[in-house]
Amino acid sequence: MALFKAAQKEGGNIVLNSYVLDYDYMPKLVPYRENQQHFIAQCIKPLLSKRNARNLFIYGGAGVGKTVCIKHVLRELQEEYSDVVHLIYINCWKKDTSFKIVNDVCEQIGYSWTHNKRTDELVSVISSIVNKKSAVIVLDEADKLKDFDFLYSFLEDIYRKTIILITNEKDLLVNLDARVRSRLNAEILEFKPYNKEETEGILKERVEYAFVKNTLSKEAFELICEKSFEAGDIRSGLYLLREAANIAELSFSQNIDINHAKSAIEKFEEFSAKDILEMASDQKDILSIIKENSGTLIKDIFDIYQKSGGQKTYRTFQRKIEELKKANFIELKENLTPDGKVSFNIYYSKGLTEY
Fold first, then answer.
1. Could you tell me the domains of the chain?
2. What predicted TM-score, i.e. pTM, was given to this entire model?
3. Which terminus of the chain has fewer Cβ atoms in its 10 Å neighbourhood, N or C?
């Protein structure tokens, strides 16, 4: 039937390299983040002289370049200084407990005899190996960690290190156990959202590598840039570029025009609204309670949740609240109680598509 040959003849090839539109793509340079990379390098630099270095707390919203900057720094260290520095990168979304973290570190430093060993035993092994050199330990998405016991041990037992915590949550540092926070004594680095010109610059560079020249219309590009800037997340722009190209190719178009961009935006907004349908059942239950009690204090919402049969601890409940907040399903508003303490009321986001 020659279906694929017919499709090639009917529709032009718009995409040259779709990989440069992936979230995980590592560009050769990270534009507009040179100052942040320099600061990170300065924190690590003493390790290269066999001295202890500075720890670092990095925060900022999603899609603002935190992870890609760190990976660039690690890549340069790997290329030039791997003989003197252990480089350990952990995604705490996947490894969220001390046990998982410690086992992952063992794997990264080449120690495989972890079976039937306790976490504290493995920490001793890690420190004995790592202390022969220095270490950069990156904990990405650190707000997903369920405990920080391993961190206290690392701070105590590893002599020359830079420990880097990356998170979307500015308050994570102040909420750490006082013993951990005092030993961490971290420098603080904020990644602010890209401005409009920076957003356009980043997406323009990706377009040059991703698409055949002159296949993306000016109007479509400007609309996608505007939407990405509004979202404050460069990843939304990458999604829209990729989806607009898919829509254009499926319609056998030789170019990506503004209608393709609008269709991609509609799909993006529909996808975002439907995220709620993919929630775990406990999140849906919590959101239902918030909807019925919008404006109520967090602790009171938790009481209602428990009375309705909820089994999560308060700490886990707070994590679920943060996840709902990140997804823009709820809003938190700070207020002062009569005794001067800070509390938060939870509000259901009324603009959300019903489920």
1. 3-19+195-275 (1.10.8.60), 34-190 (3.40.50.300), 279-348 (1.10.10)
2. 0.74
3. N
